[in-house]
User: What shape does this take?
Amino acid sequence: MSIEQRIRDLGIDLPPATAPWANYANAVRTGDLLFISGKGPTPVNERPPKGRLGAEFSVEDGYRLARSAGLDLLAVIRTELGSLDRVAKVVEIQGFVNATPEFEEHPQVLDGCSDLLVEVFGDRGIHARSVFGATSLRAGFPVILKGVVEVSA
Amino acid sequence: MSIEQRIRDLGIDLPPATAPWANYANAVRTGDLLFISGKGPTPVNERPPKGRLGAEFSVEDGYRLARSAGLDLLAVIRTELGSLDRVAKVVEIQGFVNATPEFEEHPQVLDGCSDLLVEVFGDRGIHARSVFGATSLRAGFPVILKGVVEVSA
Amino acid sequence: MSIEQRIRDLGIDLPPATAPWANYANAVRTGDLLFISGKGPTPVNERPPKGRLGAEFSVEDGYRLARSAGLDLLAVIRTELGSLDRVAKVVEIQGFVNATPEFEEHPQVLDGCSDLLVEVFGDRGIHARSVFGATSLRAGFPVILKGVVEVSA
Assistant: This one.
């Protein structure tokens, strides 16, 4: 089954990719690799989410926020490549979690994106990943994700 | 116009690349990609800048500091490749900003590097990027940048 | 001399690679590049190390902890490729150091991994690298490392 078909079957309605915030691109391709800029969760009721894991947001919130940021990564990939079917595999995801010094559950947050990628891409969505607590993020975002995917020829 | 000609026309005088701090290289090439180590801003009056965004440094300071670190990235690229004209494109920049928990203007800081890259490389300088607040950086540096560029054959 | 022979001569006994914590892989290969997930130091007396550089851990502790995490990176590489002899070169290492805001000696911590890689791989182990202070890491880990290596055909 095609990825675009699967994402429809899953009932996932990708928003348009958000614009870059400044003098850079959402993604740059080199050879078969597409490097994707850092993306945050999309606004809820027009308000961009703001706050830290371990304070304003719970682990469950974080999971949803990472899934939301993951949807923006998918939207960027579709915009850049024309179709998600052109993804040969997801190579790497890195997660920045706006977190308190005491926070320890970064993986459970990043799972929101990882689970999304495996739902959508199946085995091709199983990626290398890393995550850490940032002391602050742009606009107070709770989560930012960046990634690298391999494009099929 | 060649990039080396353009950088002269812009009046940018690249300092020599700073040395790695330990048992590693300023850059490593694999295939057409050059991975560049983290670089900080160069000293002012022989004093390396030290402090955090949101405390000792303003956003305007941060912009200049990111531009300074970007100049060191360019110096590394020139040293590794012999000429900036061998850069096919800038693929990715990641910025670490030494910041307070309240700081929210990381993109405006990183713009100092992004604007430099687009001045120097034009369309070839439009990169993917990400940025986050670090709780501390080596030697108290306010900004560290790393990057990946594609080399023309 | 082969790398596998050298690592035996050095008396380094690699532990089995630790398992991914969730819905992702220890490493993903794309072309000649192997992207490796973030890895922390292995447990001491069955207790995973927990704490921050600049507080619970000294720089000397950090050096040992980064070496320990580097051993897990090596274990992942061996598991993925079958043999460390298939590493053409180490391309990049990124270190996340769980650190206080005052901590400034991140390079000396990361050296624990860098020195290990050069011991094991010689010139092929000289990598690009970057390091920053994270405000928190999963499970309170003091250090997490991720990397990219080039695989020989």
Notes: The radius of gyration of chain B is 15 Å.
